[in-house]
Amino acid sequence: MASSKNTGTPDKVRANRTAARQRQLQAAIDRKDAGAGVGKSGPKKAVQAGARTQPVRLPAQHLAKPGHEAELELKPRFEAPGYAGSGKLAGMVAIVTGADSGIGRAVAVLFAREGADVAIFYLNEHADARETARWVEKEGRTAVLVPGDVRDPAFCNRAARRIARRFGRLDVLVNNAAFQLHADRLEDLADDHLQETLQTNVAGYVHMARACLPYMDNGACIVNTGSQTGLFGSAGLIDYSASKGAVHAFTKALASNLLERGIRVNAVAPGPVWTPFNPADRPARDVAEFGKDSAMRRPAQPEEVAPAFVFLASPVMSSYVNGAVLPVLGGPTG
Q1: Is 58 helix (H, G, I), strand (E, B) or coil?
Q2: What pLDDT digit, counting tens, does each position of 183-229 carry?
Q3: What is the CATH number of the domain that holds 144?
Q4: Of 83, 122, 240, 320, which one is the catalytic site residue?
Q5: In a domain, 262, yes or no
Q6: 320 labelled catalytic
Q7: Residue 293: HSE in the Cβ half-sphere, 13 Å Cα cutoff
Q8: How far is CA 194 from CA 185, 188, 215, 224, in A?
Q9: Alpha-helix residue ranges (DSSP H) falling in 168-213
Q10: C-alpha neighbours within 13 Å on the C-beta side of residue 193
Q11: Structural element, H or E, at residue 285
Q12: Number of domains forming the structure of the chain
């Protein structure tokens, strides 16, 4: 059974404080959004190129941060029913941060389907995290729930040590936890907003990698979640774009640094993906238009992105791939 024991009350308190702080930052931007105009929608039909038809019409829904998948009117698709596991991660142990929902949940489920036990790191979205754990266990693997704030290096150290001791090994770290909140003008980007983004999206990745490395041996790997905003920028997400550009650079630098130790480091740079992330950022009217300006004129579903993480994590598939930023954008962008 999934377990969230022994994580320590201080970690939970800090996680709750972080969630509350994020909601305060969100409230300030929400006030600026009041009365703004409705976004434009593309006139062309959305493209479907996968095993099953994916949703195109999105609900006009706004969520309170950090965003709970259970509250979404349109549930993101993470199950990947057409994906058959083949032991690509058999016997391995993975930590996935931000695994309670969205891309992180889909990655955790596919990792389990490929034979890995999964530690589900998340902030304080307990119900969502338990649902992820249920799906990991449904795949026949062990799930461990670890709530806490990756901004806190002490938490990262304790949590990584706990997982390594529990399983006797640590093979894969997926850095996926992130904070995103738009600001239409640079002048609207408050100092605490900027620090929330940088400390979560950049420092959090560094903290987790540093905490896990003592338990990782030759053949282990780190997969970071980047973004198309780190490749092309986004006018309304200046700080987030900068943080994801830093993730891409961190990926390449750490890949070079760890090469002699036989530990690979890569990143996936997704385009728009339907998760609680954007409904917990944008006004409801903009959420309904989310992804329509992408190459496929719709957002991806998490199950369409997660196989890229399996590819980069699996030593039988990508042993010669290192320092790569793999774009999963639905087509040419820019």
Answers
A1: coil
A2: 999 999 999 999 999 999 999 999 999 999 999 999 999 999 999 99
A3: 3.40.50.720
A4: 240
A5: yes
A6: no
A7: 11
A8: 13, 10, 32, 20
A9: 191-198, 204-212
A10: 22
A11: helix 284-287
A12: 1
